[in-house]
Specification:
Shape: globular
Oligomer: single chain
Radius of gyration: 22 Å
Strand content: 5-15%
Number of strands: 9
Strand order of the largest sheet: 7-8-6-5-9
Mean pLDDT: 83
Helix content: 25-40%
Low-confidence stretches: 1-12, 82-88
Order of helices and strands: HEEEEHHEHEEEHHEHHHHHH
């Protein structure tokens, strides 16, 4: 096959964005080598982003072909349509973002020098867009690497179902961005809680356990399995997930490094799982009325 050699690079572009620069997010052009967050196999494509303040402007780079690249039939029309849809969806973040937090190892206090910055967020699509047949997206990847955001209604639905990933977003110790709607969402976070979390945290950890091979375990995955059980058990007993793992950091990192025998890790998992029950502090059902009132007021504000 001809063309460029496919590759993937992840570069930090936060500092350039904060400075108001126009940054190539994904590029296959030679001029962007070493600058774009993602390297792609298309020598004519280079979508850019910029975070501008009022009154600020940027100069657009010169296109490699003033009238476009040489015409040719696209062998992957479905892929092109998906790419166009993604480019349209990404405008919802950060334009309509109400909450952005850091999750993953950096939020848990388990980060190393190689750890990524994982971001999760919530955006509120303009209400009028829901009056069309084509609805706004329920979630968006990007525009930054390792960034994922939910539309507020989807986020609330997942939180009411006690989705561990979503619930932990509401207790992240690293909040990078919030608006009034984001502050209100954090203020009602206890409304999403219910005894269902006892089942979901154990079920998610169990799914991770079943994917592990005792003969050759993926130790990072094993660490996060234990971390998830610790977080869920704290939620059951104290009414909020345990995000920072400072008290368990040394032992968890020993698991990640493969320093604990598999039998000890499995025993730790079994002991934690056995401690989950329905006698904790969580209510039987979430407070759906408070959540619906929040969602209604947020939709009205976005008219």
């Amino acid at each position: 096959m001809g063309g460029l050699t496919p590759g993937y690079e992840q570069l930090e572009i936060d500092s350039e964005l904060l400075g108001g620069a126009l940054i190539p997010v994904a590029s296959g052009m030679a001029r962007d080598e070493g600058r774009s967050a993602i390297r792609i196999d298309n020598r004519y494509a280079a979508p850019h982003v910029a975070r501008l303040q009022p009154g600020q402007s940027v100069e657009l780079p010169e296109a490699p072909f003033p009238q476009g690249p040489p015409a040719r039939e696209n062998p992957y029309p479905r892929r092109e349509r998906a790419w166009q849809a993604m480019r349209m969806d990404v405008r919802y973040v950060p334009d309509h973002s109400v909450l952005s937090v850091v999750v993953g190892s950096r939020a848990y206090g388990l980060d190393t020098e190689e750890s990524d910055v994982d971001r999760r967020g919530v955006f509120v699509a303009p209400t009028r867009l829901f009056w069309r047949l084509a609805k706004p997206p329920t979630h968006v990847d990007g525009p930054l690497p390792e960034q994922f955001s939910w539309e507020v209604e989807r986020f609330c639905g997942l939180a009411l179902e006690a989705n561990p990933t979503v619930l932990e977003c509401l207790w992240s110790p690293i909040v990078e961005h919030t608006t009034a709607a984001g502050e209100e969402l954090l203020a009602i976070r206890d409304a999403f809680l219910s005894e269902r979390a006892n089942q979901t945290f154990v079920r998610y950890a169990g799914a991770q356990f079943r994917r592990l091979d005792p003969a050759r375990p993926k130790w990072k995955q094993a660490m996060h399995m234990i971390r998830l059980l610790l977080s869920g058990l704290h939620l059951s007993r104290h009414g909020e997930p345990l995000v920072r793992m400072d008290a368990h950091r040394d032992r968890l990192l020993a698991v990640r490094r493969g320093e604990l025998p598999w039998e000890e890790v499995d025993r730790w998992r079994s002991e934690l799982t056995a401690r989950f029950d329905d006698t904790g502090v969580l209510p039987a059902e979430p407070d759906r009325r408070r959540v619906e009132e929040y969602l209604a007021s947020t939709r009205e504000a976005a008219l």
